[in-house]
Description:
Elements: E1 4-7, H1 10-24, E2 36-41, H2 45-54, E3 60-68, E4 73-80, E5 91-98, H3 102-110, E6 115-121, E7 131-135, E8 140-143
Parallel strand pairs: 1-8, 2-3, 2-5, 5-6, 6-7
Antiparallel strand pairs: 3-4
Amino acid sequence: MAPRYYTVTWDQLHRDCKALSWRLVDKGPGGSPWKGIVAITRGGLIPAAIIARELDCRLIESVSVVTYDEEERGQPRVMKSPDAAGDGEGWLLLDDLVDTGTTARVVRAILPKAHFATVYAKPAGKPLVDTFVTEVSQDTWILFPWDTEPQFVAPIAKSR
Length: 160
């Protein structure tokens, strides 16, 4: 079976991040603004920038967890922790996607009290996030705009 791909354009990503912002605007601690945002690198960096603007949040931290590259999956390694966020209480933790939940489990252990939001969610990782916008099937590979470039693709009927 050919892999499924879901191509996300820059415009769509911006719209989806704005939709996520609408869901998050009143969910800060006690209805107050968030203390800050922790972006999971690398995929969470661009959504964090868009959402920080929408939520008028100026304090942005990052956490870096390496679990795979384009070739293979490995054991998760924390490359950078978000020291300023403490246990995450009052902080918004953001990523582009929760897939299998491997990275999500690692960052949840680091920031157990953070509100975890992703733009996209797959079924295996969905229970680990508090808020998301769009669910895609587990067997779908999301092509983000920072990983792709426009090119010709044969019609489905001709590519069989």
